[in-house]
Structure formats: C-alpha cells, structure tokens
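User: Teach me something about this protein's shape.
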Amino acid sequence: MNELTTVQLIIRTLPELPFGAKYKCVFGNATPIDAAVTSNGLACPTPDIEHRPKIPQNEDHVYVSLSVHSSETNKDFVSRNFAFYDCSKHTTCHSCIMSEWACNWCIYDNRCTHDTSVCQRTIISSENNPTKLLNHGIGHCPRIRRYNEPILLPNNVPKELELEVENLPHLLPGHTGFQCIVSIEVANMILPAREESNHYIVCDKTTYSYEEDIGEYNVSVQVVWNHKHYIDTITITLYKCEILGSHREHADCSLCITRNSIYQCTWCGNSCSYSESCLENPVTECPKPRIDMIKPLSGPIEGGTLVTIEGSNLGLRVEEVIGKIRIGDVPCDIVDFEVSVSITCRTGASNVSNAAPVIVENDAGYTESSVLFSYKNVKLQGIYPSIGPVSGGTQLAIGGQHLNIGSSVTAYLDELPCSVNRTQTSNSRLICITPKTNGSRLIHMLTVVIDNSNRTLYGDLFNYTADPTIMEIKPLKSFVSGGRMITVHGTNLHTIQKPLMKLYYGNEIEPINFTSCIVLNSNQMECPSPAINKKYIDIIQATKSQTSTPQIAMKVGFVMDNVETMHDLEKYFNPPRTHMLFVEDPHVYQFHNRIKSYKGDPLVIEGENLIRASDESDVVVTIGTQPCNVTSLTMQQLLCTPPEIQPANTDENGVQIEDINLPLVVVKIGKNLRFPIGYLHYDLMRNYNFPPEAIAGIAAGTFFLVLIFMIVLVMYRRRSTKAERI
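Assistant: First, the predicted structure itself:
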C-alpha cells in the first residue's frame, strides 16, 4: 500500500493506436497514467500514495478496478480487479503468515511487512508469499501447543500454569522476559513467566478465581514477551468443586466423589472441596439418601405413573437402588437414573385409594419421604359443550374426579384423539381440543386414559355439526378507535364458544387487531369493531392522503375454533361484503366553562363527524348515573332528553365528584370512545306548593269557621221562630 511500483500487464493482442495516441492505465478513480508498451503487454506505474483509496477498518486490502484505454477514445478495452494491501494491518504471526498477500513476519520486530529489509534477524514468509524464505509458513510461528484435553485449574487455589510451546524466540540483551495475561470476567491479571527447556512457559504461581455461580468457567491466557510481542492465546478452564459436587444448591456427597478424577474433588466435612484444600480426612462413604422433591404426588390406583424423585446421595450406581424404590409396600420400577440426584420410576398398582411415603434405599441406608404419594380412583361425570364444528377446535371440558393426577393423560371421542391441555386441568375438570372429522356425527363414547387407568363414559355425548358460515356483516363502517357494535348473520354460530373478529390490511398475513364476539343465537352474533389507530395513521402518512375525509378498507376475518374458511372470507364472498371501511373518530365538544344550565328544553351537545360511522344506537349519554335519551343525531349535533330531576353529583359509574355538586355528563360512542364533556345544572321554573302541614291547618280553620257559622245560624232560626209564636 505504501510502495510505488510498476505493474506488468500481460495483454496478448494490444489494439493499434493512431499516431500520437497513448495507452492509459486507470486505477479506480485515480487520474489516468501513461502506460509503457512492453513485449508482453503494458507496464503501468501505480498512482501516488495520496491518490490511493483507503483500506477499510478491520480489513488488510481494498480492491479497485484497473482498466486500460487509449488517450484518443477514453473507452476501456480491458479491465480487471487490482488489490492494494497493507501487511501492517496484521499484528500477530499467525494472521500475518495466513494472509493472502506476500507478507512476512519479523519476529524480533513484532511486525508484519512486505519489505524484508526492515526486519532484524529471524523472518518468516507467509503461506502465499511466492518468495519462500528459509522459515516459510505457519509452522515456524511461535505458538502454544494445542491440547486434546482441557487445561483445568481449581478455583481459588494457588497454582502454577505450565504451557507447552513451540518456536520460542531467543531473548536478546535488553529484552524483557515472558508474561502471561489472564482475562477473568472483566479483569486482566498480568503474571511473570519463565521459560523451561525452550519447550515450556510456566506462569508464576497465583490464585485464579471467578465470581459466577457455575461449575466451570473458561478464561483466556495470552503469552507475550518483551512486553508487547505476542506469542499465542489459549483457553483454560477454572472450576469449583463445591458446585460440581452439588445439585439444586445442595452439596451432594455421591455426586462429589463420582466426579471425573481429573477434577480431584473430594467430600470434605459437609461439602465438596478440591482435595489439596481439604484439611480433614476425605470421606469415601456417603450419608443415607435425602429426598428433596417428588413429582407428581398422586396417580391412579392402577399404577403406571412415572414418578421423579430428586434429592441427594440417592446412589452411586443404578444397580445400588434397583428393587429398592417403593411407595409404601408397592414397588416402583426404575426407568431412569442420574447419579445421586435423580431417580425416575414407574408405580405399581394399588388395590385401594390410599397415601404412603416414598422409600429410597441404597448401600448407605434408606429414607422415607415426609410427603405422601396418593393413589386415587379416577371418575368421569360428563362433558361440556355438547356441540361443535366438524373442523374441530372446540375446547371440551370433561367433568369428573381426580383428573389432574398421574404423569400422562390421553382422551378419545370414540376413536378420535382429543388433544389434552394439562395446563388448564384441575381435579374436577380436564380440557381437551376436539379433532377434525370428515362430516357430521354423534359421539357415543368418551375414553380418558391416565397412566394405567382407563375410564369410559357412554351416551349421546357430543354432536359434530356442519361448520358455521357467514352470510352478512353489518354495518361495514367504523371509526378507527373501534368499539362499534357489528352484527354478524350466519348459520351454526352457536357451535363456537369464543369467536373472534380480526382485521387484515391488504395482503398482510398478521392481523392488525381482533375483538371477542358474543353469540346471540345460532344465526346471529355481535362483535365490537377492532381498533386500528396506529395502523390508520401509518397508512395515511405512507399514502400522503390529501382528502379531508380519508377512509381505509380492512379485510374482515374470524377465528371460529379450527374452521379455516373463516380466516379469509374473500375466498368465499365478494370483497365489498368482506371489507370494513374505517374513518376518523367522532369528537364531542365540552361545555363552555365546563358547566351548562338545563332549563327544560332538550339538551344540545355539539361535536363533529358524529354520524360518519355511527348512528343513534351507538351513542349513549349519561347525566350522573341517569340516561339522557338521544332523540336526534346529526353530523355536528346530538339532542337528548335529561331526567326530570337533577341526578346526584357522580359520574356514569356512580363515583362521587368531590369538587362540585353537579352530575357529570358523559357521551359514549361505541365501546371505546368516552367523552366527559362537563357538568349539568338544572335551572327550572319552580311551582310554589304549600306543604301538607299548611294545607291541613287551613282546612281545619275553614271547617271551624263553617261550624261556628252553622251554630249561629241555628240559634238565629230558633229565636226567630219563638218570636213569631209570641
């Protein structure tokens, strides 16, 4: 890269040039250079260094096109790639010697170069260097010998590290010695090292340790000389006996002493330690078994349950525990064994329902579990629902007793396998998903197999009916926030438990959104339209729609168990009937100053886009908890009739409003849009009615006056009569 030279181009048939014309060589984008004609072709001087392209980082070369043309036409008549390379990009002997260029490694200069004249003493030519020096190829690089087995060092134990090496340089006066650079986790440790017999590098004795809670940890060891002169890197393995000899964070004697002897781990006291660090007499016999976990804890009385027992000191060899695992008095046959820490066995049959401890015995003794394994009698009682589509996918609930026991469960509808979902299984309910059938049929037999138990239920249990169909979807217009109630008409809709409505855009496979539908009867269901807010904005921005009323069409699909025809309705209906148009959300304005007076006329509420994708049935207005009956709806206004008496100061859910003694007015459009627009103050003309007490008083006074008048009148009449007689 930094050398000026002349490139010889072998061109067998050079075209003849007119008088005065010259051949030009062009290196990439550099200025054309005059070429000299040779007996074999042309000779092209390379461009000046400042006119050459830069080599990318982490690369040792860059390719440019080298072309030849005439000064008369400036048209290329021959072209090929030409590489500018830089050997100094390589910093180790290995990468230098394995490069594809004519590079050389200067051992005592610790550099890679094309020019051997700058090297002192030993030089190694690269594998691809046509000039083969005395030391040629990768076999002459200083390096650490590769080991077939990993190099192991115990954690936190002082140790020397001995590495076998080849082709070590002889140190000269002024050179510093060898060093080992050990990289452990985020730290580098630099250790002095010495050479032995010209074949070994021994890193000084030190303690190697890592923090991570794992049994083995790989670390990198780099050997250098004269501070920065690189030799090679090797990976060694640090290990912790206390983790290698433990299971689930519990020290395990059997696991410790059966570890590969290369680790030199031994049981020391109550833990697993490196043998040289143990200050006590090492143990050769382990304690009796310890049981930490049993799974599952119940199974059918017929047996056949795979029981996994985990713990410590469960045995050094499988032969040690064969025939010695029991549940009470019932043998449990071993099917899998992991030294000391795990045993899997298959339960035998029990005559009755009972509970008993798990017993593990080996050469060190025996142990009974503190928890009991229960044998139980499985019973079936019924299934729900009793109907589903022939395409399958119905979630069938099987009722009974002890349905969540054992290690394996299968279910069959007649001869059809029903896929069991154990994550939803309980003691009294087993969930399975019905398979597909070829046509309508009635299932007469349900079979549930739990391990060795086999239970059967007979009767007219489940009816496979024709798949549901979709005949009409209306309305096919919604606002982008969704929640508008969409009515779907079809057939056999009641056979689906949890139908979903999904929306797709264009040819995209993944749905934009979905909602859950409610089945009303076999021919009708209701689905709130899914929201598409983010997708709507993305599409409008991408299409740069200039219309004031943009609308986006979405494909409608349904999830109805495993009925595939519902996923893409376009295959079965024309697109206008399967696309839903989405428009901008309606908006309702708040009251001026947040409070509005009500004087008896219909309440007027202002807004925009109120009927672009909604009608009166989609709008609900509440004043406090009381409805305000909608009587009129236009694009910019809705009218409603408030209740006669002012409701209490709450919102629509009855939550009391603390800061004002007025009811909150809320407008809801669909299920998703809610507009709290302010408070309503009743300002009606009052009729002044007398209280009942006053009315009663007036009536009593009037009656008293009439009574007095009648008495006076009677007395007057008597006196008049007496006077006439005299």
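Now, about its shape. The helical segments are 93-97, 241-244, 253-257, 533-543, 692-725. The longest helix spans residues 692-725. If you'd like, I can walk through any region in more detail.
User: That's plenty for now, thanks!
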